[in-house]
């Protein structure tokens, strides 16, 4: 027997689902429901964290409910979570999520700036899932909460030049025997055009390489790289140079290289990081950029001090070092796996500021050492509120203060949230010794 309940939605959770208390106790998670709404929902099996539910009917809609602009949202596309919510309400939700994350991390009175939101149609990176089945090639994103690939015709959040590749890519993959069942297509929009990394579950034949070269020429794609499943990428076809300019320096990124999701989001992150720096850095003005990637932050930071960039990916380090050398930017780029070998307290001592831009899991080991160090300022660039909350607690327990916090929404309509948070060391007597 189906269990249908009438629920009053009180909030939106971290994944974008509406949250509603259940009459008999506990919490229901209702995708598609918004705060202030009265809804009817079909309740699923109880889990430890609550009860998943399916929205059946909206009895009283919220005033900030809007018509989703993309037709695929109603089909369950997992690329977006809250297209049915007005942009101002989304920005307020993300502001509150950062404030809550910092409160859980030991900073209950954190002053959080307004959310910096980027417009749709600006995403310059797309990671399309691909699946071959009885109905042909599906290319798009996974359905929300499912491994099923939803075939899409358009996408309103990516740059139109990337959206224009959806149909040609699907047709090309239909003829590619190297795609047996599952694959992916990562597309970065560079200054020179789309840069494509294909991953397939079968080997690429010489004939297919010729076909990819013809497709690249026809579609105006300077480079198509290919990899077997999770193996190393190789160049399958190249019709011209690849380059992107970051803060005035031209780089040649590796296939599938990490870029900030949009130029607007990148600019907002850079602005927040630079604003958190003091007008004059202490000592010799040295800045460490940890998890530096291609140098998105290292290059602008070099206008404020001497930068030492640390990054684990060899290709990114090489690209950054070469670009900085050509542009005459005073920075050093060092390859180092910071998850396995974080900078020690002694190594951190010379820096007037440290910028930390960790992966989604955060940087617990490095943060523990930073919290014990004598570095006066740490600027943490977060892409995961849960990891930020955990890492912030180390600073709170060590007596640091929170100097600034800015939420940045460059993944418009999604549940993802980025933030730039500055932690300042309170003046202390004595010194901190390394382990």
TrEMBL record:
Family: Belongs to the class I-like SAM-binding methyltransferase superfamily. RNA M5U methyltransferase family.
Classification via SUPFAM superfamilies: Nucleic acid-binding proteins (SSF50249), S-adenosyl-L-methionine-dependent methyltransferases (SSF53335)
Keywords, in A-Z order: Iron, Iron-sulfur, Metal-binding, Methyltransferase, S-adenosyl-L-methionine, Transferase
Single biological process term from Gene Ontology: methylation
Active-site annotation: 383 (nucleophile)
Annotated residues for binding of S-adenosyl-L-methionine: 260, 311, 357
InterPro entries membership: NA-bd_OB-fold, SAM-dependent_MTases_sf, TRAM_dom, U5_MeTrfase_fam
Domain called TRAM: residue spans: 1-57
Protein name: Class I SAM-dependent RNA methyltransferase
Domain of life per record: Bacteria
UniProt keyword Membrane present: no
GO molecular function, one term: methyltransferase activity
Keyword Nucleotide-binding: no
Taxonomic lineage: Bacteria, Pseudomonadati, Pseudomonadota, Alphaproteobacteria, Acetobacterales
